[in-house]
Amino acid sequence: MAMSPMRSSLGRAIGLGSAKEGVGHWWRQRVSALALVPLTLWFVIAVISMIGADHAAFVAWVKSPMPAVFLILLLVAVFYHTALGLQVVIEDYVHREAMRLAALLLMRLLCILFAVRGILAVLTMALRA
Amino acid sequence: MTQAERPLSPHLQVYRWQLTSVLSILHRATGVALSFGAILLVWWLGAASDGPGPYAVVQHFLGSWLGLLLLFGWSVALFYHLCNGVRHLLWDAGYGLDLRSVYAGGWAVLAATAVLTILAWIAGLSHWSH
Question: Does a structural domain hold residue B117?
């Protein structure tokens, strides 16, 4: 093999490269994007159909019960995809090591916080008698 | 640590604007905007789970001029990021990577964004008035 004498055979076989995660981030971003295509289209149609609904009608719709399932899947996919996307933006523009780490951790924390708040809201409506 | 004055690689300002780069920048910009839009979604669901009072507050805000403006911007960003995201997925699958297809796809994304936005708002506003 003439190419890349600087890399060990083991390193080449594992294929994780200098960032130590290989194509992991890239792949997760694509898979979550793929999941979001049908979920987004469903969500847009759902929102339009729920315009003008009063509170009782909205809660009844959420627990009907598939909307609750799709809303939770949407929240998971949205905040997962958001965290992956914002990570790249932060890594591109925040150059100071400490600032970058702080921004990444804060961003992740907020994504998890909002996702859990949203899921809890859906579950509360879906499970309330 | 002292930093050597090395020449930097050219950035955005030295390049002529072109469809490909503008759409690429827009993809990132709409992605960041939608991150904040996602908070609106959680606020809406949270208010609905909290009861009729908080839900009415959100509904009132979304029906106001500021609310409708935000929703309109959000829908444009959503449809653009969705359509251009599909364009990215097609590239990743190995399709449409020649220059002609890249431009044709770019214009198609802009057209689809406009059509989807208009259709959604026609459906939404006609639903609202009933």
Answer: yes
The predicted-structure confidence for B88-106, as pLDDT tens digits, reads as follows: 999 999 999 999 999 999 9
Count of domains in chain B? 1
Give, as one character, the DSSP assignment of residue B76: H
Q: At what angle do helices A55-62 and B19-50 cross, to 10 degrees?
A: 110
Burial B24-40 (b: 16+ CB within 10 A, else e): eebbeebbebbbebbeb
**Domain coverage including residue B84:** 38-129
A23-39: pLDDT as tens digits = 889 999 999 999 999 99
Q: Is B11 on the interface with A (CB under 8 A)?
A: no
Predicted local distance difference test score (pLDDT) of residue A2:
54
**pTM of structure:** 0.90
CATH number at residue A99: 1.20.1300.10
Q: Can you tell me whether residue B8 is helix, strand or coil?
A: coil
Spell out which residues of chain A touch residue B38, defining contact as CB-CB under 8 Å: 78-79, 82, 114
Q: Which domain holds residue A99?
A: 25-127
The answer, for B126 touching chain A at a CB cutoff of 8 Å, is no
Whether residue B9 lies inside any domain: the answer is: no
ipTM of model: 0.89
**Percent of chain B residues topping a pLDDT of 90:** 82
Q: Residues of A with CB below 8 A from B127's CB? A: 48-49, 51-52
* B25 occurs within a structural domain: no
Selecting from A78, A114, A121 the residue whose C-beta is nearest the C-beta of B49 gives: A121
Is there a contact between B127 and A125 if contact means CB atoms under 8 Å apart? no
Q: Would you say residue B110 lies in a domain?
A: yes
